[in-house]
User: Fold these one by one.
Assistant:
Number 1:
Amino acid sequence: SIRNATAAYAYNMMTYYANNQTSTPAEKIGNLPAPYYWWEAGAMWGGLVDYWAYTKDSSYVNTTLQALVANFGPNADLMVPAHRGDEGNDDQAFWAIALMSAVEYGFPSPPQSQPQYLNVAKAAFDSMAARWDLTSCNGGLKWQIFPENAYGYNYKNSISNGGLFALAARLARYTGNQTYVDWAEKTWDWCERIGLISSMYEIFDGTDDNQNCTQIDHLQWTYGVGIFLHGAATLYNYTNGSSLWQKRTSGLLDRSAVFFSPYPNATDVMYEAACETVGTCDTDQQSFKAYLGRFLAKTAVLAPYTAASIKTLLTKSAAAAATSCSGGKDGVTCGTKWYTGAWDSTSGVGQQLSALEVTQALLVANAGAPETQANVHLAQPAVTTTISLPARSITAELQTSNA
């Protein structure tokens, strides 16, 4: 039944994609139509790589492979499309993260005459690390890559730096190269020092480098805590269960509680706390829950002591999402609000991807542990403890986090 649901969600999502026709310009292949930006296309293909790994359904393998290869930039560097639009470091990170999933799960590769996933992911990391900006705030990545993108160029946000952190962690685990570990630690330490990671493991949105990062935007988003959580769990696994990365993994998982249980009758159901209940989520934000669902599932595999609690969150959220995916002519169009018990009349790539990710996450064990470069699975750390999310007041936490 889970496979049937994910197949329906994926099929509906792919109705939004039309850029694989013979008349499509080369630079448009793999991209979604307006109003979707380049990053969300990369995120969607990453979700479909996982879909294949978890369900063994090969329906979208050729399309996904074509999309990934089409977005390989010059010199096998996954930079940005030729049109150089509003893409930023976070956009590049989402494409590179999709490639790492392809590497870790053995997704069908391009011909050897073309750049390979791992090399492109490494090149993407190198280009991001080269943009580490010491001209303000003593480091950090800017949101935007190009100065002409004034909106966001002077903003150092958690998702860009979280993307660098998570990509470094995954490359470290896969390759065993200490340089990636060093970069992951460097990025975490900077985020913590600036205040993007709080002492309670809250992940705040970003900070203005025109003010030398002295002021923090305290909005929290699902994908922010999700990307740091997966990176921390990856390093916990790579270090064979170090106490430092266990503490950080546990802290982030605990703080993710702010994105569950919006109402007393919706216990453990995921929602986007900053915008969803008031109906202000934009097109990008409609997809953010997808990545928390994705990264929770991967965390459960890499840090097994979290699995029981994560399974509860994913199961409750997937069941609620199913009630939302009941709209449209096909009867499987997904909405935004999973806690209403019905379709809320919204639709889009983000809604479909979010439902797909949180549902297919229940099948994550089918893919096994992500592989390493030696083509063997790392030994799983011993289950030394369990995490249970404490009773909490979501309202109080939101008031605190938005102060």
Number 2:
Amino acid sequence: MPPRYLSFRCSVPWLILLLQALLLIRSFFHFPDVSDTYSSSSSYPEFQDVTHMVIFGFGFFLMVLRRYGFSSTGFNFLLFVLGVQCSVLAEDLLVFLTGEQNQVDMESLVKAVVSMTAVVISTGAVLGKANPVQLIVMTLVELIFFYMSRWINGIFLEVPEHLAVMHVHLFGAYFGLALTSRFPEPPPGLDKNRSTPKSELFSVLGTVFVWVFWPSFNSILAESKKVEAVLNTYLALAVSAVAAFMLSALTSKDGKFRMAHIRSAVLAGGVAVTYTAHCKHPWIAMILGLLGSVITILGSHCLQRCLNPALKLQDTSGVHFTFGLPAVLGAVAAVVLGVVERGIETRWNELSSLGYAAFYDIGAFCQTISTALITGLITGLILNIKLLKAVHVSKYFDDQLYWEFPHLSVGF
């Protein structure tokens, strides 16, 4: 039996068992009864949609590599089921730190699932380069840092709780970018990091799942403006999808559609409208959807050819231009719309208060990105210690290190 397999078998199962035992003990001594925990179920349909989106949608979305399909879906599910339990406990601790009533209910579970989206997005940046032990450690560390960022935004920058949770796209994308910069680059001759028509098809299937359920994701924490959030998100997604096909044909050398463009750009509208989903004017959401697709497709050209080689980044799934750049666009739009709305309410008579509010909004977004970059670099250094047995660069993007294949002669 290969020594690498022995090392894998002696580390991953026991780490999972240890974490699950600790979570079970912590839950036994702290969580309330089931009847108290799930007393409210009004948001369960949206909760189901978000769960489908994260497990099915992102699980298939990450199946872009030709020899990493089992790991993309399997590890995504493992990280989700472990991470949600950790996230529920972190959510409970955050409620305790903010001085609110300490209880676990459906809203707490919803926020835990939404917060796990940051981890799933970051996983796409290091896809194929991190082993399961590294991914589990990354999940735990990233959740801690994300909740710390949420706490800072809520306490010091006065960000509403439902908006602070929605910083998952910004945090997850830039945490993943900083994290992947700490991993060695694969050798030039390695071709396992490319896609095939079959892997692209599965990835687009995941994109469709995410696209369908994104209105529920943006509206699940909206207290009194769920209808506006659903409508604006759907319109933004629709416009971004139309723009994706148009721009893909215009930017391709032969004038044909590129599946990589469609896979990334159709989601840009949902990301860009996250912070402004409650807006009363649907045309603003449609403009954001259009601009999101433009930024995604043009950004993929510029970043892959210029920025990524210069910074030695290998963003495996393109999370920067799929989630990071549209989230930055949405943050800028939120600041501008916030100033305009407050200005109209006060008839532009309190310019100092407008500047003060805009300063807080900008500070919250900058704090999120800065914390994500700094903590991502720190986490990257942690994941590369010898104890975690980093994968050799020649073994990147390969399922056979972790999964059993009864018929190796059959390609996938």
Number 3:
Amino acid sequence: RYLGIPLLASRLSHMDCKVLVDKLLRRTTLWLSNSLSFGGRLQLLKSVFFSIQVFWCSTFVLPVAVTKECGRILRSFRWHGVGNSKKGGKVAWSKVYRPKEEGGLGIKDARSWNRAAIMKIGWDICRRKGSVWTNWCYAVLLKNKHFWAAPIMGACSWSWRNILRTREVMIHKVLYEVKEGNLFSLWFDPWFMGASIVNKFGMTVIQDSGIPRDTKISSVISEGRWNRPRNSWDLIQISYFTVNLSLQTSSDMIHWMKKGSTFSLHEAWRAFIPHSPIVP
């Protein structure tokens, strides 16, 4: 173990996460929680207990059984002051998990937060964050592939497979801003109407254009203007769209949901939870 978490590359088992579960149980038995008010227990849940889970959620894809057990401990502590009570709660825990504006208490469940934290890893890879982890992903896992086009194969590790699965949600949250076109892939990055050209038109559009697969957007920009081939119906449609995209002499940028915004773990978490009407 290193910093309290197991060092392994395979899928986590329930026994691997026993340290996390035992730590939560130990905290609930050490405190004289029966003398605390509901507000006091809620504050401990949001600060201390949640921070214990965050460290693991940001590193591994936790088994569903472990996240459920963590939720059971928190639920028991919330209503009864101990982490191993067998009694039921006063309100369904699914309602307690809701944000405050939707009638809940704003407690974040470990399962949804875990998926949002894994999405942040995908965001770092997408933006090519300058870190050893990101460089290793491109050198070993992706090699000559693009992040958005990398297939999920049986040979993929458990963690890498789950990182790639977050693309289904993340593609609706990222905003690609094309300026000079030196950073984005022409065919595989989702800069074209919120998706990649290959996803919208298929692989045949690459053959029709005669442009290589690994080219950047800058290859179809000449003297600050778009210069795309128009020898097929799909390429003509693409040209009509790109005419309205203004170009600038600066680096391409990736935004989170809107221009000028960076990744928000809270907003990513909200993408994985069910939503309810706003309450008074």
Number 4:
Amino acid sequence: PPTASARTDIRDCSTDPPYLPPTAVNTTAQLAALRDTMRAHGVQAYIVPSTDAHMNEYIAERDSRLGWLTGFTGSAGESIPTALGFLLGGTAMVTQDKAALWTDSRYWTQAERQLDCNWELQRTTWIESIGLWILEAVPVGGNISLDPFLFSIDTWNSYSRALHGSGRTLLPIETNLVDEVWGDQRPPPASSEIYSLPTEFTGSSWKEKVAGIRQQMGQHVRRPTAVLLSGLEETAWLFNLRGDDIPYNPVFYSYTLLTNTTISLFLNETRLAAAARQSLQAECPGPFCVELLQYEQASTHLLHYAQGNVTIWLGTEYTTYGLYGIIPQEKLLEDSYSPVMLAKAVKNPKEQELLRAAHVRDAVAVIQYLLWLEKMVPQGQVDEFSGAQHIDALRQAQEHSRGPSFQSISASG
């Protein structure tokens, strides 16, 4: 096989001038602007994750801060095992004179094609190695900063442990420095309609679901006064609402704070379909009246609520450190998953029947695809891409199709 230097599709930063393939992205301007902003905020290092504020597996263009800053696009629609949850696509670390990207081995070749020579690629996937890099790159007394609304509680704690006693400070800044620099070039927020799922596709009404969660609150030994939902699929499931803010996922940006007597739903309410709004507000005022608040107000509202004599139940897997940090420790009831996530996981007979019917429809598409492959492959007519397009078209032709659940992986061997 040719030596690495003969390969022209990956970067070579050892030559002068360095060799960059046409796929590499020039990040000099982004980095210079970010470093200016870091200086203005008195920050020596800034951590940029590839997650969004809801710990989504897939993210919208608007939340692709790592991609914009580094040129590295990470996983385009691929499930990442949760053991690498903090990485998802990668983690970037920027100081005044260095920039590094951590990603796991599936992406090393891709990174070498997309990164320019401003970036060092770190071929390890554990937070300890990021910690060691920080200790080397940031002098004692330095601040390492991040946006607390983009980090899980676990990831925050891991960084905290890695820096503990090192004389360096982990400093949360609520203004996202990448967003500040990205400015009006950043893609706009989603604007498509948020709609009610037709009744024939729901296992129970949203009021029944809310009543069930309130019953669990009442039976819990700690008697929580509220449940906080950060996972987008939790709110979508609870209210039988759907949207398409994120590729391959029928969800929309939202938070929910549910108490025994009130329901606060934080979202861009101008996007709500008229029928959906009617369904949520048919019983106002009252315990089944959904108060619609702006998505951006969630943390302020939570801060205000947390000042009362309350206990807030949440699932730590989907709650960011930013929201978690608002609630005093003694007012928290923590589980890995919220009661809504657990209720959603248990399908009632109607939901089971709907699932089976969906699988039958999908099986038809797959069988059609396999027959087509048997006919076409011997003719040399199919590559992986055209195969993926064909199975997507077959699925789309099935009744009730709302698109694939991930980018089709259509070949093997």
